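re: that complex we talked abt at group meeting.

here r the seqs, copy pasted straight from the sheet so there may be weird spacing, ignore it
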Amino acid sequence: MNKSHITKMVLLVLTTISFMAALYLIFFYVPTELSMGVVQRIFYFHVPVAWIALLSYVVIFVSSIMYLRKRSKTWDTVAIAAAEIGFIFTTAFLVTGSIWAKPAWGVWWTWSPRLTSALVLWFIYVAYLTIRAYTQGDDRKARFSSAVAIIGFIDIPIVILSISLWRTQHPSALIFEGGLTPPMLLTLQICILAFTLLYVLILIQSIQINRSILKVRDLRRLKEMNEG
Amino acid sequence: MVTKAPALSDGPIISVKGLTRTFNDFLALRGIDIDIGAGEKVAVLGPNGAGKTTLLKVLSSAITSSSGEVTIRSTRLKDKDPEVRRYIGVVSHQTFLYQELTAYENFTFYCRMYDVSDREERIREIIDRIGMMPRLHDRVSNLSRGMQQRLSIGRALLHRPEILLLDEPDTGLDWHALSSLWDIINREDGINRTILFTTHNLSRACTLSNRVVIMNKGKIVHDIAGSGLDAGNIEEIYSRLTGGIE
Amino acid sequence: MDNLGYLFAAFAVIWAVVFGYILVLMNRQKKLKRDIEKLETDIRQN
Amino acid sequence: MNYFRKVSAIVWKDALSEMRTREIVFSVLVFALLVLVIFNFAFGADETAMNSIAPGILWVTFAFAGVLSLNRSFVQEKENGCFEALTLCPVGRDAIYVGKMLSSLVFMIIIEIITLPVYSFLFNLNVLSFEIIIITLLATIGFAAVGTLFSALAVNTRVREMVLPILFLPVVVPLLICAVNASGDALAGESWGDLFSWLMLIIAYDVVFVVASYLVFEHALEE
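got the structure back, here u go
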């Protein structure tokens, strides 16, 4: 048990350090963007949150395929953990996106390619959580969620492509707009590193919690059998 | 106390080694080992939850096994080869019939799914034998439970399976109807059919089969064939091993 | 709300979400640890 | 090849039970026509507004009509354990998927064949052009491909009518976007060149999701 405890400690330290570095870079190092002014600094947290939302779905996709092949419950616990985190980060992305849209475009919501794709991604997460909530029986619940996750994951690139084709008539680089000066790029990379480390830490913690939920259920069944 | 029944032909037509099956952490089958020779008529007894239906579902390849080896006609079910199902007929609690279609249409559909070449004659032959000729073109939803059970048994015989798995075939049928159907199931066009059926009725188990297997809590607790087969003896063993008859 | 206010609001949301979720995970874990201990003692007794 | 005989047997069975109950085509058709009429009430007064959102109305109608007919597709299999009976036939689950998908496709196309003329009658737009028919056909293949898999999942859940739209609609968003834009261009009399990019995306979507649903269906529905 202590091996995973150590890794968690190391991760915690690394995450804290990188977050402090990120905050320093955002508020002191990087120059203010000319057109949008200071509010543009939301960008340095906004993009990593989107990155985590997408990364989570990759994790769900991989663990779903592994579950359908191996049918072992551990892969399913990984998928549940990643789904929860991914859904929360996608929601955070939409909220901060609209907070950013207000000063930038004077309206709480615009159908910009990035925000629209994020909204569809949000609904794909809802689809995953819905099938998981409404299916009975562990094995069937895991199998059905894996199916929805795989189809949902394949849908994401096509969603992004068709939305960008629809909104801007040319498929532009959606997440990483061009024109980032070197300091801006450095800050962004550090922020993404910080969020990724945080993500791995939360994911490990959440997986362990899901495993112990299963353990509690087994112990409860064992108790019933002894009494029964 | 498990006495091995002699296998009738060369290898067993069904061989099960160390079969386990779990449903959401409930161990439905806890290590089943049994060999069934071609032509054997095996009755499977046991209280509810003993795993009878699960065993039948695994053998019919409706569900996969959690561990262990199941070989039917020397093909391993694990290889997921659909062809092995050609030799298996299944009668389950559910009738497997489409409510909105007529008996004739249901049988035509299943004949096409099982590639039955002489479809028309086969359907007429089976319908006539199960005594459903007058109701051939009635919708299944308009038929009584007993008639649907007859159709369900007829459906399982359409493709002349060598192995027949019946899950409590006596539900919805009175004794007379079941025994008349039993002759059909047995003597059907010259196939010495291997039959595995589950039932709660001990006397029927003895009269209809030449081997009785008793299951309890996911394991085979008794397997006796031939001479030992009389209702009294079985009843005594059954109540001793499974704690009483429901 | 001038621009700085929006900046603060956006960061506040992200931090709130992150720490909120960590808190949720922590008390889930506490509750589970309690359940496991209670169940293990029960099982050990009978 | 007996694979196609099995697939055609499933399609034949679905068609037969549909003719018998007229459950899917009739009820969904009434729904589609009602939606068109309601849109007409909502936007009928303003001619220009009507034309600009005409393709949107068409595809909202088709999307929801699609969901309704897909909701019914596995109901027959759910009664009397017929889905298990299908898996006991000497054929892979993939043939079951292809069979059910084709029958859903046929039902949806029948609904569209009737809805389109009524649409062009109500909205006096020439919707029966060759381009629109091609777009509709291609998009419906995508609907049927994803819809059949999701309806097989949804039919085994508790609140089946509610689960299917939540699963189905987000995944067909790209299809809807492309179809609406392509139909808009087609209605505006654009040449094939402009429709090309949208059609390519729809075709890519169809290919990707027929294959993906085909594979996932086999594994996800194996007990």
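couple things i noticed - DSSP finds nine helices and no strands in chain D. Residues 3-222 of chain D form one domain.
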